[in-house]
Amino acid sequence: MEKYKKQTVPSGQHISGQAPAPQINDTTRKGDKQSVMAAAPRLRIDRQNITFSEADRLGKGGFGTVYKGLWKDQPVAIKVVNEEDRKLIPIHVLYDDVLKEVEPMLSLKHPYVITFLGICSHETYGPMIISELCEGGSLQSFLERTKGPLPANLRDKFARQICEGVQSFHNKNIVHRDLKPGNILVTKEEDIKITDFGLVIDLNRTASAQGGAGTRLYMAPEAFALNAENLTTKADIWALGIIILELHGVSLLVLFQQLIRLRQAPDIPDSVPLQAKEVIKKCSSLEPNDRPTAGQLLKVLTGTSTPPPKPVSPSAPASRPASPQPSNIKHADEYEVVEASFKAAKKGECAALTQMIKTHGVAILDKRNDHGDTPFLAAASRGQAGAMPLMYDAYGPSILKQTYKNGRTAMHWAAANGHVAAVNKLLEWDLTLLDACDKTGTTPFITARYHVDVLKALYAKGQDKQNMLTHQTNLRDTVLHDAVKASKGDSVAQLLEWGVEAGVNLLDIKGYEGKTPWDLASEKPGMRKVMEKYKQ
């Protein structure tokens, strides 16, 4: 959660134009969600005024998912903590962290920064962050679709708008600390909105600046050594320079060795215009105090200030990374190879995967990405039933033992995402995957609650059908509890039908907080209607 960080202000003071942060003391931290929410009543949005469906998912990050919803008939973005993380983190800690991070952002009203509207308390999803809706996707996906330098007018507009947005929160002493194209949205009108989809929660809760490889590519050299709380606005300026470099069509993968291994300023190709080159050089100063402010950069980009000219030696062309060594993945090459393997696995590109395994060996299938996935887990999550056998044959049956950091197997991911073909392939290889539990005690059958066709495939192969129906997670919930919470009427009806056949009264099993599936449907008339004929 520690990504947006307001710099220290002397006790008793607050930044001009910004309301004081809610006072969250030790008593509040130890209390329940009601006491935490009471610490900042002006942030609270009434649950009755919020509507959304899990089918309207806009995106999912490491720990949070964003949905499109309505607040008093106004389209909004709704951010919730992922289910597995809600089960692992005490509820008051979730509210505490959300309040501390969102409060400074409420004072930001700028056309190029996403507007945060408030927090909604939900009995199932916990704290939900409500913000302005932007449906155009991220700048990262925009650049990937473009595949090359942007048109000059659009590129320059994006650079100016990002600088203006950064300047707006720097003026309030707010440091973003994770500025990158993935945290910048593009509207349908092709305007910029700076945001942070990781805002929902950071489970690491560590003092040091953390992030995946995608984040590290934008991290200033001092961020690798400093406590995150000691980072200044100058760390954002470094990231800003790297983003501008990317806007000019420069792939960061070729700069990996400089940016990550050597932690040097990037070489700038001759194709980058002189004005932009000067901006990037200033942003990439190794000494933080030598970097300009966002406002100073904006003046250069808008032509209202002329930077002092610096000679560029024609005899010093941009250096290039060493050629990949086919049989030995090291340093800069490793990142590119691993990224390529995940891309191939996610897209089911069998020929590319075959070549990578042949060139780099099966060890490439042990590599983890920033989220903790392996290529095999990534393929299962996306239902790539063609690529999975290729990896299984190359690696052997032990590849089925690979798990995500929360203990989920390939079967969990294939089932959760509704991929019947991938589920059937995994069942063909190992039926014991049906009984695998992640760290929250959740089985693949429970993760399949959203997809009745997957439930049927798993149930058909189950040896102990009664146990499949009555298995309870660490929080005591069954698959029916979770199906009711998700408002999946078809899954609820099928599970209840199986319950009758197995001689089990699923409606009366007490789960989390002693609630039965029937209790959970008290405010869901549609669910109650499905359940009524099974209620004894």
Automatic annotation (TrEMBL):
Residues 315-327 have a biased composition (Low complexity). Keywords: ANK repeat, ATP-binding, Kinase, Nucleotide-binding, Transferase. InterPro entries: Ankyrin_rpt, Ankyrin_rpt-contain_sf, Kinase-like_dom_sf, Prot_kinase_dom, Protein_kinase_ATP_BS, Ser/Thr_kinase_AS, Ser/Thr_Kinases-Pseudokinases. Residues 1-38, 300-330 are annotated as: Disordered. Pfam families: Ank_2, Pkinase. Residues 52-313 form the Protein kinase domain. ANK repeats lie at residues 406-428. The keyword Nucleotide-binding applies. The keyword ATP-binding applies. GO terms for molecular function: ATP binding; protein serine/threonine kinase activity. ATP binds at residue 79. Belongs to the protein kinase superfamily. TKL Ser/Thr protein kinase family. This is Protein kinase domain-containing protein. The lineage of its organism: Eukaryota, Sar, Alveolata, Colpodellida, Vitrellaceae.
